[in-house]
Amino acid sequence: SQQGEEDPQALSIQEGENATMNCSYKTSINNLQWYRQNSGRGLVHLILIRSNEREKHSGRLRVTLDTSKKSSSLLITASRAADTASYFCATAGIGGGADGLTFGKGTHLIIQP
Amino acid sequence: DTGVSQNPRHKITKRGQNVTFRCDPISEHNRLYWYRQTLGQGPEFLTYFQNEAQLEKSRLLSDRFSAERPKGSFSTLEIQRTEQGDSAMYLCASRVRGRTTGELFFGEGSRLTVL
After folding, report:
1. If residue B39 lies in a helix (H) or strand (E), which one and from where to where?
2. Which residues contact A109 (CB under 8 A, 6 or more apart)?
3. Contacts with A33 from chain B: Cβ below 8 Å
4. What pLDDT, on the 0 to 100 scale, is given for residue A98?
5. Which of A50, A77, A107, B100 is such that its CA lies 20 to 30 A from the CA of B70?
6. In this predicted model, what pLDDT tens digit does every residue of B46-67 receive, in sequence order?
7. Which residues of A touch B45 (CB under 8 A)?
C-alpha cells in the first residue's frame, strides 16, 4: 500500500519558474525523503528531512515538513528543462511496519523550454 | 561503477514462464530491498534483507515470488509461472544499516513484460 499522496499528479511550467509539489502522509514518521525518477530509470535521492525539522535546503531545492498536518512540500526554484521527471515523497516509519520507505504515487513535472 | 546494478534491464516473457532478476548492491551496504513499480505509481515494497537474512516480506509477494541473498552480497528475485499482472518495473535498492531508514540507493530497474 502507498503511504502518501502527492499533489498535483502532474505539473507543467515554463523554464525558469518555480515548481511546488505537495505530499501528504498518514502515519507517524521518523523522516521524509524526496526522490526523482527520470522516465524508465531508477530513483535518485534528493533530500531527507527529519521529523524534528521544519525546513531544509539543498541547492535549488527547499523542503518543508509539517508533522501536525502530516504534510510536506518540495520547492524547485528556477526550474530547468533537465528537472523534467517524476518526483516521489517517501516516509520512514517509527518502529513496526516495513523497514525501508513507503512511497507516494508521485508528481510528474514537465518543464517547458 | 560502484552503484547498484540490476540485470537484465528488460525481460519479455510469455505467461507461465519463470524469470529471474539479479541485483548487485553497493558493496558496503548490508541492507537490500526489492520494490515493484507499475506505470504511473510509486514503488511498492516487496521484501528486504539484512545481510543474507530475509527479514520482511510484503503481502504483495505471493507464493510465486521468491528472493534470496545467499552470501549477503548479490540478490535474486524469481517469479514463477508469470502472469500478465506481474508486468512491472522491479527495483532494487541498498543502504548501510542504521537505526533509521536513511537514503536508499536504487538501481536502474528490471522491466518485465509478460505477454
Report:
1. none
2. A10, A11, A12, A13, A19, A21, A76, A79, A83, A84, A85, A86, A87
3. 103
4. 54
5. B100
6. 999 999 999 988 888 889 999 9
7. 98, 100-102
